[in-house]
Amino acid sequence: MKVSGFTFCRNAVKYDYPVVESIRSALPLCDEFVVNVGRCDDGTLELIQSIAHPKINIIESVWDESLRKDGLIYSQQTNIALSRCQGDWAFYIQADEVLHEDDVPVLRRSMERHLGNPSVKGLLFRYLHFIADYWSMNPWFYHKAVRVIRNNGDIESCGDAVGFHFKPTQQYLQSGPKEWLAPSGARMFHYGWVKDPMTMLEKKREQAAVYHGTNLPPAAAKELTGDAFRFEDYAILKEFTGSHPAVMTTRIASARRWGARRSRWLNWRFYREIGRRGFRG
């Protein structure tokens, strides 16, 4: 069994993505790792080159500005990296996602178990979304996503690269037949919202341009005002008490909490959100 890892990134230094930690977390699982680096001038290419691991294959691309709508540039860049993968399975990890080392053996066993069953087209991961700091999780974000796909040419990234679809029918994997997906047994630690508030605001402005161009919806425009991003749900986030991936140790050691927070169970806003979105953990 051969496993290819793949990702894309651009402006990873400017927006403080943990892309080095992300790639390093995947290397023990992978026989090769393809990184598609979009042209930029913040030192992202040099940062990826500094990893200097023989499994890494770096390719460079120029983003198609005509795809700056609905996040389509993200899936296009993802598929550029996927097209270079040669493994039986392709493991996708975004630049703000990190795999825990404890989950590598169980993930590998899941790949081996389903390798001979062509009806299984992808493996699902359980998601932990961290907000503002490394001790705060949002339980209302999506709980599962596909991050391993069968690399036979029938599956590709779609939309804004959150998921994948079956190319012959354009059917989204997570809404397709049940036999298409199997549990990976692994978690994905998502750190895309753990940033300095000013950096977070700049990142959100870039993302808004990718999704909406210059025609921002009123809600998005309001969110992007001011000098720093406002983590408005911080008071009702879930406290994380588990262990982070070991590759994140240095980052976490130099980090601090974004703010003080009492128990969410004593906050009336928490119960309002349960009524609006349900209890998700």
Q: Which key terms come to mind for this protein?
A:
single chain; 281 residues; alpha/beta; 8-stranded mixed β-sheet; 3-stranded antiparallel β-sheet; 8 helices; 26% helix; globular
Structure, explained:
The protein has 281 residues and is an alpha/beta fold. Helices cover 26% and strands 25% of the residues. The strands form 3 sheets. The protein has an 8-stranded mixed sheet with strand order 3-2-1-4-8-6-12-5. The protein has a 3-stranded antiparallel sheet with strand order 9-10-11. Strands 7-13 form a two-stranded antiparallel ribbon.
Any chance you could write out the topology, listing elements then pairs?
Layout: E1 3-9, H1 19-26, E2 32-38, H2 44-49, E3 56-61, H3 72-82, E4 89-92, E5 97-99, H4 104-114, E6 122-131, E7 136-137, E8 144-150, E9 155-158, E10 163-166, E11 171-172, E12 181-193, H5 197-212, H6 218-223, E13 238-239, H7 249-253, H8 268-277
- N-to-C SSE string, H for helix and E for strand: EHEHEHEEHEEEEEEEHHEHH
The value of Rg in angstroms is 19 Å
Provide the residue-averaged pLDDT. Answer: 94
Please tell me what the overall shape is.
globular
Q: How do the strands of the widest beta sheet line up side by side?
A: 3-2-1-4-8-6-12-5
* Category from helices, strands and their pairing: alpha/beta
Compact summary:
The chain is α/β, with parallel strands linked by helices. It has eight helices and 13 strands.
